[in-house]
Amino acid sequence: MQTGSQALSGLRRLSSIATKSEPFSVYIHWPYCSSKCTYCNFNKYVDPLVDHERMQASLLRELKTELKHWNLDQRSRPIRSIYFGGGTPSLAKPAMFQSILETLDDMCNMSQDTEITMEVNPSSTTSVETLKALREIGINRYSLGVQSFQAHILKELGRDHTPSSALRSLRDARAVWPGRVSMDLIMGHAGQTLSDWIKELRFTLDVVDDHLSLYHLTVERGTALHRDVAQGKILLPDHELASDMYDAMIEITEDVGFEHYEVSNFARNRAYSLHNSGHWLGIDYLGIGPGAHGRVRDPITGDLFRTFNIRDPAGWMRQCTEQGTGCRRRVAIEPDEFKQELIVLGMRTSRGIELSRFYQLTGQDLMKYLNKEATESCLSAGLLRVTPAKVYPTERGMAVADELVARLLP
Amino acid sequence: MKPSSSGAVELESFSVDQIRNFSIIAHVDHGKSTLADRLLELAHTINKRKDNKQVLDKLKVERERGITVKAQSASMFYEYKGKKYLLNLIDTPGHMDFNFEVSRSLAACQGTLLLVDAAQGIQAQTVANFYLAYGQDITIIPVINKIDLPAAEPDRVAAQIEVAFEMPASDCLQISAKSNMNVDQILPTIIENVPPPSGDINKPFKALLFDSWHDTYVGVICLMAVIDGTVKKGDKIVSAHSERRYEVSETGIMYPEQTPTSSLQAGQVGYFVLNMKTLSESHVGDTFFDHKHIGLPMPGFIPAKPMVWAGIFPIDTADFEKLDHSIAKLTLNDSSVAVQKETSTALGQGWRLGFLGTLHMDVFRQRLEQEYDANIIITAPTVPYKIEYRDGTSKLIRNPTEFPDMDEINARVKTVQEPMVRSTIIFPQEYLGDIMVLCGSRRGVQLEHTYLDESRVLLKYRLPLAEVVTDFHDELKGRSSGFASFDYEEDGYDDADLVKMNIVLNSKPVDALSIILHRSQAEVVGRDWVKRLKGLLSRQLFEIVIQASVGNKIIAREGLSALRKNVTAKCYGGDVSRKMKLLNKQKEGKKRMKAIGGVEVSQEAFYDFMSKKK
Ligand SMILES: Nc1nc2c(ncn2[C@@H]2O[C@H](COP(=O)(O)OP(=O)(O)O)[C@@H](O)[C@H]2O)c(=O)[nH]1
Ligand SMILES: C[S@@+](CC[C@H](N)C(=O)[O-])C[C@H]1O[C@@H](n2cnc3c(N)ncnc32)[C@H](O)[C@@H]1O
Ligand code: SF4
Ligand SMILES: [Mg+2]
């Protein structure tokens, strides 16, 4: 494990005084799923014999250790958001959520405004009562992995739910958390046409709550999808079709009042995800659970660290038992790396990057940091906008954000 | 032959009539190197071993490609009818680009073995080499090789030799260099038929320099044929060309490695170490004299003129210095490569190099890559064009960027001329139609049409060199199922309606991609290039317009619409650090791109375009 003695003067600017009152977030990873989806390369395991008690104990142990390690148990720094992600957290026992939230409430400064999200897979067995119980223990936002409302696509993706169970889960969740339900949908499937996608979207917009994540199917290494694509068994939409789908998705969601606030995220009535946007804004977060990663400031020096947890649940639990934490690596984030991270993430959002925030976090004038020539050509090409307060991508710019940042960064 | 007590081989006992200097000339792969191995074994210059494979081909490229690039020589001692002979084999390159080397080697010989494959029969270089030897007035001994092959037809090949060269079929030796069949007839035939050199040992020293190379330890080593007199260590000799005086610090023979001798005498062929520092001091064809007896020089060679020019650029501009060094080192031993510095707006700093032909260029590139680990881009080759002005002056153009623009042509230029070649093409008769169409489409004019036998045709065409250096050879092979062979020699200059075609990216010309071609071809080539480029460029943030133009006229156009979408769907947590790594790689890649008209073109795209890989 690497420790925090490296001198990183640039980042100390956000002095320990500022650090003392900055909010932070917590991410908790539940690493189990009931089956594996063809496209997914997340840190997840299919294990029929999950030791729920040991898992819960380990999560709690690690949470406490890390809160203390980073001086986050001083109540001076409010919790902005808590996110139970996975894997499939809906497979965990309600007691797990309860004990974690109680611990956080005990040790830290949680408030009415703290966003507490749970990521779930649609299931026919989750009752409204269960949802209400979850609401009682504090869950106040619900994110449902629908992926598609088409049976043949769900099958192709290896999902173990049906369109109707997804619909029911969505309806139930909206009843319990009105205005605070999100759902995920994936576009760009093999054989999918533009009109297929438009139909899927229109259907979705009739049933959706106020938040939507629309992801372009990504071919990740090590997945069944990757293998099939590499072997030519599957042909995914080409650049033109995928671009048409992306454009259609922006247009159609806008028509019904959704704001495209991040590459893959849409919100109505300002129902943005606090957790994810905190991440883009450079807010600290703790990573708890197998394979989770965090980004936290050292309370004394103000140096910024990235943390990496052991990925495999058994190994992670073992180390939690032995050392109190399953963290395998803490590494200082170089000042330049953090600047670039803020730009990479910021240019994926419609808000872009606020110059004052960038200066506060890095001590650097953003406009001086960006490649001048590239900034100018992107400005004149209508991919970028600059105001005295911020730099942000246009809709067209956001669509090519990867290319944009590759040019803008020095 | 044993070295004397002094460590040097003594050659004094060999009078001129005990010496024969000969070479082997052949089409590629007809067995020249194999036969040389056999002869050297027979005379015990090398030990008979299973793995004597082309001992004279020293370069890796020579072995890989099976061609001899550099002339070499090797001496043999051989007893015949009770008399000892010193036989010098002077190996010659077997490819048209190196015909110049062939003639310089032939000048040091009195005889040559014309080697022809019994299955393939006469090929284009057989013809070219025959005429080179014929022009030097030396004894030609036809030898038909590979008679062990099941497909061998030695009698038919002998008949071809009679038709093509007017040499009686019955004079042909029939051998197999591989199985050693009849190889023992060769040296006796040489001794009987090739005249000894005509020098006089009692006259003052005089020698012809026919090859040289650079050695890291002793500097330049010269191969010379001694015409008259004798020479030994410590003698002072003078170059007729430069009038510079040198002291001989070592003489010797190639046996087959450098082996010092106590002296060299009239008729003998050997190497000289003269304290020459650079190859530029050694002029092939130069005559050397005893410093007190400077006589009439031998008719010298016309130095080889580079006929194919190309720009060479490092893929990574940081490699410039290293590459500069490598090129200097390689050209140290290949003075036929002409070197000039060149700067391209698209590719940065580089060189414009002149080669004898495209194979010479390929070999040079391969040596740079293999022996010096170079990563390079080579532009499309250009032949030297001649611009004649109205005021009587003229200019040679080796780079499309030097080609006069329209205004200059209208105002000042009288004619634009291009180099021509006479080519020999030999192939089975069934391909006649296709090959004539090909030659016609390359602006060729037929000069000769001969049937070597009932099924083999020999064609001679006059063709623009520019047509030959691109993909003519490949086309020829393609249209004849690989059976056509081809050779050419230079044949002056002709007026031609030539234009410069520019490739323009978003209205900025890309200098490294301009070429000179015949007006009639501009449109076809333009369309092809523009299309291929489109395939090699990646979409960018802006629309790219790729055009080919001649003067102000656009002759071809393709558009590559802007990148619409390139963004990772999901990006958070640990993915961020992975993404940052990818990003840094991407940025590195961008550094190695050249922005032309705002369009980023990767070096790889240039490379693929030039090498026609895609
Ligand atoms: N069958 C057979 N093959 C031969 C004979 N002589 C040479 N070869 C083969 O022909 C190929 C070309 O020979 P090489 O000596 O390199 O030809 P070069 O290009 O003229 O020097 C090699 O594969 C040799 O092994 C021969 O007499 N019989
Ligand atoms: C980490 S997954 C976990 C959520 C939950 N287990 C589920 O599957 O619904 C969160 C979301 O990421 C998206 N996702 C995962 N892998 C993806 C891929 N390869 N391409 C596009 N989106 C993907 C899916 O929409 C999924 O709902
Ligand atoms: S997409 Fe969700 S359910 Fe499917 S394997 Fe991944 S984490 Fe598990
Ligand atoms: Mg050879």
From TrEMBL, chain A:
It comes from the Eukaryota. One of its GO terms (biological process) is porphyrin-containing compound biosynthetic process. NCBIfam families: hemN_rel. Keywords: Chaperone, Heme, Iron, Iron-sulfur, Metal-binding, S-adenosyl-L-methionine. This is Radical S-adenosyl methionine domain-containing protein 1, mitochondrial. GO terms for cellular component: mitochondrion. The lineage of its organism: Eukaryota, Fungi, Fungi incertae sedis, Mucoromycota, Mortierellomycotina. May be a heme chaperone, appears to bind heme. Homologous bacterial proteins do not have oxygen-independent coproporphyrinogen-III oxidase activity. Binds 1 [4Fe-4S] cluster. The cluster is coordinated with 3 cysteines and an exchangeable S-adenosyl-L-methionine. It comes from Lobosporangium transversale. InterPro entries: Aldolase_TIM (IPR013785), Coproporphyrinogen-III_oxidase (IPR034505), Elp3/MiaA/NifB-like_rSAM (IPR006638), HemN_C (IPR010723), HemW-like (IPR004559), rSAM (IPR007197), rSAM_sf (IPR058240). It holds the Pfam family Radical_SAM. The keyword Ion transport does not apply. One of its GO terms (molecular function) is 4 iron, 4 sulfur cluster binding. Belongs to the anaerobic coproporphyrinogen-III oxidase family. HemW subfamily.
From TrEMBL, chain B:
Belongs to the GTP-binding elongation factor family. LepA subfamily. Belongs to the TRAFAC class translation factor GTPase superfamily. Classic translation factor GTPase family. LepA subfamily. It is found in: Mitochondrion inner membrane. Keywords: Cell membrane, GTP-binding, Hydrolase, Membrane, Mitochondrion, Mitochondrion inner membrane, Nucleotide-binding, Protein biosynthesis. GO terms for cellular component: mitochondrial inner membrane; mitochondrial matrix. GTP binds at residues 26-33, 91-95, 145-148. NCBIfam families: lepA, small_GTP. It is a peripheral membrane protein. Pfam families: EFG_C, EFG_III, GTP_EFTU, GTP_EFTU_D2, LepA_C. SMART domains: EFG_C. One of its GO terms (biological process) is positive regulation of translation. Promotes mitochondrial protein synthesis. May act as a fidelity factor of the translation reaction, by catalyzing a one-codon backward translocation of tRNAs on improperly translocated ribosomes. Binds to mitochondrial ribosomes in a GTP-dependent manner. The keyword Lipoprotein does not apply. This is GTP-binding protein lepa.
